[in-house]
Design a protein that fits this description.
This protein is mostly helical. The protein contains 20 helices and seven strands. A hairpin with a 5-residue loop joins strand 3 and strand 4. Helix 3 packs antiparallel against helix 9. The radius of gyration is 25 Å and the shape is globular. It is found in: Cytoplasmic vesicle, Secretory vesicle, Synaptic vesicle membrane. Its main location: membrane. It is a multi-pass membrane protein. This is Synaptic vesicle 2-related protein.
């Protein structure tokens, strides 16, 4: 009797006794794709298409692993990347272009210019949890579509703002819509097989870089002739393309199973199998018990309490350090080196606060170079995340950033300063992406979108606070500013090491910890073609 081999992998590192107890999930290592006959015990033969590679039952995780990575996932990668580039990267990049332009055109004081940036983060912070709740309650596709259409609508309206107060409110509403973009990662991750998940989510960062580069190039073409209003309108148009492509997106099969919609989940899995040209597991799809979805209390159960608190601090530190470095880079480059900042600040204070300068071609070139520094970070993270694990990758990224920040205490020259800032930004951006890989993996389907949403909200808190450190505190003490960033990242590195669960090599959870174990115990006892062994391998 020919059978498909299985390997059971626990939710985290477990002993053989844990494997025998049944708290595990099935990963299909390989499924034959040829239409070969399979011999039965009585000598009869049946076509492969009637064989059941997962015996009489299977779960969504089994189907996703059996179908593998193919044409469907490539299409999904492009669409998710488009959301990341158009709805996130481009809208965030506008902040660095729009602020100096309005500062000059409307003669805004510095605090009003800063408020234009802060109000976007306020909108993102206030909406992240809401979008996560909507995605857990009504579906990932639903939450993503509404957030994209919201951003598109208010992004275009921003181009028609007559006065400062209008654009302040409209950009805040744009930020409210951007807060739902991380849900594209939730939807994306739930369709990826385990071996491809980390690499694919990390490669989404490439679309961030593409989006920022495209926005800068668009600004170079539009700003000198058409002005900032057309830049805002044209920057929102790629969202229209994504909104149209959303009709192709299926709802997450994991969400459909959790909400009790078995037929729709099976139809989605069959569609993916057809597009990938892979066999669909036969038998009955196991439906998880329906449970409350998107409840904040689920993030603080004994199993997830420490994970949630530590992740909130890690995400806070990521955004706090990343956006802080972006602000500090301009200050350092304008001063020439760290030791010259104090004397330069004294000169700046003597100038009128309304003195303004339009962005030059050299400024746009510097913006492009700053963006390109993130590519090495993605490549390094891509190389190490499946080798040393998610936790150690985040810890390493924070540690390297902290070390580079401390080296800035030395009065290094312009070239060494550029290298240190380049390395620091590469690693902090890579650490950000590692967090985007880890967070959807650690939470079960019922709270995955909410968990990612709350973490994203905490990141916006860090982004809100960092201007007061990188700009206000910098006026008092350069070294105290560097100590704050370095110390914060050291603590985040420790927090990464203390995360209770390592998700490397682990499939996505379908339900809560206790229910997951009960499901698999029952499943193992009702699958006659699967036998247990102490080694964890099955035939």
């Amino acid at each position: 009797l020919r059978v498909v081999k299985f390997r059971r992998t626990g939710e985290s590192s477990r002993s053989d006794e844990d494997v025998i107890s049944g708290e595990h999930e099935i990963q299909i290592e390989g499924v034959r794709t040829e239409l070969e006959p399979i011999e039965l015990e009585d000598g009869a033969a049946v076509p492969k298409e009637f064989a059941n590679p997962t015996d009489d039952t299977f779960m969504v995780e089994d189907a996703v692993e059996a179908i593998g990575f193919g044409k469907f996932q490539w299409k999904l990668s492009v669409i998710t990347g488009l959301a990341w580039a158009s709805n996130y990267a481009m809208e965030m990049m506008i902040l660095s272009i729009l602020a100096p332009q309005l500062h000059c055109e409307w003669r805004l004081p510095s605090w009003q210019v800063a408020l234009l940036t802060s109000v976007v983060f306020v909108g993102m912070m206030s909406s992240s949890t809401l979008w996560g709740n909507i995605s857990d309650q009504y579906g990932r596709k639903t939450g993503l579509k509404i957030s994209v259409l919201w951003t598109l609508y208010y992004g275009i309206l921003s181009g028609f703002a007559p006065v400062y107060s209008w654009i302040l409110v409209l950009r805040g509403l744009v930020g409210f819509g951007i807060g739902g973009v991380p849900q594209s990662v939730t939807l994306y991750a739930e369709f990826l097989p385990m071996k491809a998940r980390a690499k694919c989510i990390l490669l989404i960062e490439v679309f961030w870089a593409i989006g920022t580069v495209f926005e800068v190039l668009l600004a170079v073409l539009v700003m000198p002739t058409l002005g900032w209003r057309w830049l805002l309108i044209l920057s929102a148009l790629p969202l229209l393309l994504f909104a149209v492509l959303c009709f192709w997106l299926p709802e997450s099969a994991r969400y459909d199973v959790l909400s009790g919609n078995q037929e729709k989940a099976v139809a989605t899995l069959k569609r993916i199998a057809t597009e990938n040209g892979a066999p669909m597991p036969l038998g009955k799809l196991i439906i998880s018990r329906q449970e409350d979805r998107g409840k904040m209390r689920d993030l603080f159960t004994p199993h997830f309490r420490w994970t949630t608190l530590l992740l909130w601090f890690i995400w806070f530190s990521n955004a706090f350090s990343y956006y802080g470095l972006v602000l500090l880079t301009t200050e350092f480059f304008q001063a020439g080196d760290v030791c010259s900042i104090s004397s330069r600040r004294q000169e700046v204070k003597a100038k009128c606060s309304l003195t303004c300068e339009y962005l030059t071609e050299e400024d746009y070139t510097d913006l492009l170079w700053t963006t390109l520094s993130e590519f090495p970070g993605v490549l390094v993270t891509l190389w190490i995340i499946d080798r040393i694990g998610r936790k150690k990758t985040m810890a390493l990224s924070f540690f390297v950033f902290s070390f580079c920040s401390l080296l800035l205490f030395l009065c290094v020259g312009r070239n060494v300063l550029t290298v240190l800032l380049f390395i620091a930004r590469a690693f902090i951006s890579g650490g950000f992406q590692a967090a985007y890989v880890y967070t959807p993996e650690v939470y079960p389907t019922a709270t995955r979108a909410l968990g990612l949403g709350t973490c994203s909200g905490m990141a916006r808190v860090g982004a809100l606070i960092t201007p007061f450190i990188a700009q206000v505190m910098l006026e008092s003490s350069v070294y105290l500013t560097l100590v704050v960033y370095s110390g914060c990242c050291l603590l985040a590195a420790v927090a990464s090491c203390f995360l209770p669960i390592e998700t490397k090599g682990r499939g996505l959870q379908e339900s809560s910890h206790r229910e997951w174990g009960q499901e698999m115990v029952g499943r193992g006892s009702h699958s006659p073609g699967v036998t247990r062994s102490n080694s964890g391998s099955q035939e």
